[in-house]
Structure formats: C-alpha cells, structure tokens
C-alpha cells in the first residue's frame, strides 16, 4: 500500500508565550554518570540526513508513504556522526523480521520445508538487527534487543544509560528499528482496529488530538560526559533520566484516565532530578487513536498542573507511526528541538478535542527555547516509557 506525499495546509500562526524563569535542572556531578548525546543517525521517510529530516518536520510536510527502514544504515550513520570507533550497541524492535517470517511461512505452505531458508529463524528474531550491525562494524560490548511494542526505543535509552551510569561502558549505540509495512503487518493492525480507515484521503489520515481521528498510519549515540570530554566530542544534549512502567490494564488500550502513563512521566522526572515546572516541551506519543490521545493528555495534565507555558507536538502526524522505531525518531526530534529552538507543527489540526487545552503547535512551526523536554512512548500491552532531555550545561 502507498500513501501520497503532500504539503500541509498552512494556518494562522499562534503567538508564542515567553517561558517562565525556572531554576536549572539538578545535575549529576560525577562526569562518569552524566549521560550526553554525542551523535545521531536515522533512516526515515525523509531520507537519512538528520537536518533534512528535521527541516521537513518544521515545514509540516507529510512524509506518509511506503517505506523501508534499515538499522544497519542508521547505526552506522550514528557512528559516523560522532566520529567514533566501534564500541557497544543496544537496539530494539517491536515486531522483528516480519517480512522474513511471512515469506518463509508462504514458502513452507506452497513449496514445502525444503524451500524454507536456513536463516529463517535468525532473521526473524528481534536481536538480529543489532547482531548484524555488530558483525558489520566490530562492536563487542553489551548487545541485546528489547521488544516492548511502540515504547521499545525509549526502553533502550533507559537500559543504555544504566550501563553508562554503572560504569560498565563509556559509550552506547542505542535506538530502535522497524519494517512492518507488509500485508501481514498492516492486516493485523487493521484487524485490531488500530489503523486509520481514511484510505480515500491518506494525506489527512494521521491527525493527533483532532476530533475526527480514527487511528494511526504506520510507517543516537549515548556517552558518559567524562568520555565525551576526553575525546573532545561535540555534545548535542544531555539525557537526564527516564522511566518505564506497565498499565496492567488492556492488550491494546491505555488506562483512559492516563494513570499508568502519568506515573511513568512522574518517575522519569524523579530519575532526572527535575520538577514538573522545569519542563516546557513534550514530544507526545500521539498516535491519533481514539482512546490513547486523550489518555496521554489526561496523564500530562495530572503531572503538569499548570500547562499554560507547556508546548507539545505529535511527530506521527507528519511521518506516521514507526512502531519500534518511533521512540528513536522522536528522541532525535526532541534533541533537534533543543538544539535549534524550533518546534515542528502537529499537522491536520482542524478540529481540536475540547479537552486538549495544551498548545499542540497546530499546523505551523513555533519558536521555543526548550528548558527541559520529555519524549513519551507508550506501547501495546500497556508498556510505558518516558525519557528526559535538556540542553547540555557544563
């Protein structure tokens, strides 16, 4: 299936309000335990150049189309971006080698067991993306995969930062990958009513928080500060903390009141050592699902009592839902928001839900100096993950 690429409709710009003066986030003083971002790489609907990717987001240009993603390319580009020799890797995928599995099942049914590839199982398991990157590049440190649906990449960030904080490694390559846009992958999501049915208007299909949303469209280097300083590395941002929780509620739907998600947000801020008042940007999970979008808003309101200065946007409105890769692309988006001072718009914001009283940066990019940012990722099974980033301050 294919989607048409279009430019988003422009609307009147909303005047940005000045952010209040708040105290600086509490920092871990030990440079061995401070985690910084020193390189990023991606493969996306807008190609593999990070500046091009973010500029397209700022323009609000829809990138929804039939695509492939390759963890090898993204991982190697992250290493190139940081000008680094090969160290260690932690990657995840939500679904794994679905294309390979489907092809080999078809071969088995139609042609018999002799037509099943001897690599059918290795290429199906979720850890193989990281393993192949390690084989290609010589990475020999901790190398494993995490699979927690759409929250996968954020789980990986939390796990990688813990390796660094415990002093086990100096540098981690971490992220997420997915390639599930095949008949079986799409069909399964249609069957559980997760996808938008706006097939006659694909350019308007992904519309977080809009009253007429009906489902989603499918579609970095972490290092200790001590290591980065020794290498003279370019520091893009600082990872302050993160958290993971489980709703223990439903296979596909979050708790409508957002309790499980609000707990995860609160725990991430506690781990980061910052107060809710210091956060002024949220890169939301925002998949365009009927229950999920409002549950996330409820969760945000529970944690951030005063949201008048808070900005949040939905990256999936532009690039669709990348499943296991979503958190990685949205972390890059969050870091680019920090480094550029610009927030990309949430497109297709034509008829906002009444309960969404937070500035969603509708349809037009907005200038905003980020003090502390969180990036939310919530997956099937009630897997919640939130990571906290901020501008690096020595």
UniProtKB/TrEMBL annotation:
<keyword id="KW-0443">Lipid metabolism</keyword>
<protein>
    <recommendedName>
        <fullName>beta-ketoacyl-[acyl-carrier-protein] synthase I</fullName>
        <ecNumber>2.3.1.41</ecNumber>
    </recommendedName>
</protein>
<keyword id="KW-0275">Fatty acid biosynthesis</keyword>
<dbReference type="InterPro" id="IPR018201">
    <property type="entry name" value="Ketoacyl_synth_AS"/>
</dbReference>
<dbReference type="GO" id="GO:0006633">
    <property type="term" value="P:fatty acid biosynthetic process"/>
</dbReference>
<dbReference type="InterPro" id="IPR016039">
    <property type="entry name" value="Thiolase-like"/>
</dbReference>
<dbReference type="InterPro" id="IPR014030">
    <property type="entry name" value="Ketoacyl_synth_N"/>
</dbReference>
<keyword id="KW-0808">Transferase</keyword>
<comment type="similarity">
    <text>Belongs to the thiolase-like superfamily. Beta-ketoacyl-ACP synthases family.</text>
</comment>
<dbReference type="InterPro" id="IPR020841">
    <property type="entry name" value="PKS_Beta-ketoAc_synthase_dom"/>
</dbReference>
<keyword id="KW-0276">Fatty acid metabolism</keyword>
<keyword id="KW-0444">Lipid biosynthesis</keyword>
<keyword id="KW-0012">Acyltransferase</keyword>
<dbReference type="GO" id="GO:0004315">
    <property type="term" value="F:3-oxoacyl-[acyl-carrier-protein] synthase activity"/>
</dbReference>
<feature type="active site" description="For beta-ketoacyl synthase activity">
    <location>
        <position position="150"/>
    </location>
</feature>
<dbReference type="InterPro" id="IPR000794">
    <property type="entry name" value="Beta-ketoacyl_synthase"/>
</dbReference>
<dbReference type="Pfam" id="PF00109">
    <property type="entry name" value="ketoacyl-synt"/>
</dbReference>
<dbReference type="Pfam" id="PF02801">
    <property type="entry name" value="Ketoacyl-synt_C"/>
</dbReference>
<feature type="domain" description="Ketosynthase family 3 (KS3)">
    <location>
        <begin position="32"/>
        <end position="391"/>
    </location>
</feature>
<dbReference type="InterPro" id="IPR014031">
    <property type="entry name" value="Ketoacyl_synth_C"/>
</dbReference>
<dbReference type="InterPro" id="IPR017568">
    <property type="entry name" value="3-oxoacyl-ACP_synth-2"/>
</dbReference>
<dbReference type="GO" id="GO:0005739">
    <property type="term" value="C:mitochondrion"/>
</dbReference>
